[in-house]
Amino acid sequence: MIYLDYSANTPIDPAALETYMNTEGEFFANPNSSHAAGQAARERLALVTQGIAECLGVLPSEIIFTSGATEANNLAVKSLAQAQSSLGKHIITTPLEHASVAAPLDRLRRRGYEVEYACLATDGKIELDALKKQLRADTVLVAVTAVDSELGIVQPVGEIAEILRDYPNCRLH
């Protein structure tokens, strides 16, 4: 069998699986519990979080663990829009977004945000010149899937990020 949907899931690296199994075996308790096993799990989680924060150059308090991509996208889209809401409520996205992005954008639309679709070329890629014309001073978010999970379209995310440098109040997700 040839498996080509690595956007959805990938085989786990053996070293990562071994680390997970060892950690799950030793620190199985709820880290929010006050008993000894919970305290040990909380200490281990704090240590791991510190390591991740150091790798990313951020504070441990800036790390948020989610159950998966759907929850992470939901949290990111809603949080970015809300954090920037005093600067504007204009959002640009594509009709190709995964439901985990499209659904929170629809919810934001119902809450008064203006969600506009970027123009796509016949190959499904965002037309960069058209995007430049759509951007406004009150654009606070551009949400673009880097690689479409169904069609395999690879968006020019680097070029989009470069365009957004001229819009310091706009975030790219």
Key features of this structure:
173 residues, alpha/beta, four-stranded parallel β-sheet, 4 strands, 44% helix
How are the secondary structure elements laid out?
Layout: H1 14-26, H2 36-56, H3 69-83, E1 90-93, H4 99-110, E2 114-117, H5 128-134, E3 139-142, H6 157-164, E4 171-172
Parallel strand pairs: 1-2, 1-3, 3-4
Counted beta strands: 4
Distance between the termini: 33 Å
Which class best fits the helix and strand makeup?
alpha/beta
Residue share in β-strands: 5-15%
Taking all Cα atoms into account, the compactness measure Rg is 20 Å
Number of helical elements: 6
Order of helices and strands: HHHEHEHEHE
Low-confidence stretches: none
Strand order of the largest sheet: 2-1-3-4
Name the overall outline: globular
The overall average pLDDT, rounded, is 94
Helix % is 40-55%
How is the biggest beta sheet arranged?
4 strands, parallel
Structure, briefly:
It contains six helices and four strands. With 173 residues, the protein is an alpha/beta fold.
Could you describe the 3D structure shown?
By secondary structure, this protein is of the alpha/beta class. Helices cover 44% and strands 8% of the residues. The protein has six helices and four strands; from the N terminus they run αααβαβαβαβ. It has a four-stranded parallel β-sheet, sandwiched between helices. Helix 4 links the parallel strand 1 (90-93) and strand 2 (114-117). The longest helix is centred in the first third of the chain and has 21 residues, at 36-56. The model has no long low-confidence stretch (mean pLDDT 94).
